Amino acid sequence: MTTWNLTQTQHHVLICNGSSCMRKGGEEVTQAIREEITNLDMDHKIHTTRTRCNGRCKDACVVVVYPEGVWYKAASPDLAREIVQDHLVGGKVVEDSVIYTYDQQQFAAPEYSESIVGIEKQKSKV
Ligand code: FES
Fold it and tell me: Mind giving me the DSSP string for 40-75?
């Protein structure tokens, strides 16, 4: 088990490796992101984590970037490399593939998002 020093980390990328995302190229997306980070010598600034299902399977393969709180859909290896180059290194969100962004209070789907809305979560009974 590895214990990374994260004191220089600027971004945390969650790459969905749940079953739906793995059927849609999750392994290739994971490898593309990690290879591009290494190629750009950004390993000390960008931390990646494979996750289980993120609850957006119809948008597979899902990639989430923090601290910005940007959720990407349908991440292909090419899009994965674009996310690293444009967003993580260049600071420009890859808008065509965004499903949600965080506005410091809640997540919202941008107007240009072509993502499905999804089903409502149960409201808690208090
Ligand atoms: S398996 Fe990736 S969002 Fe469900």
Answer: TT-TTTEEEEEES--S-GGGPSPEEEETTTEEE-S-
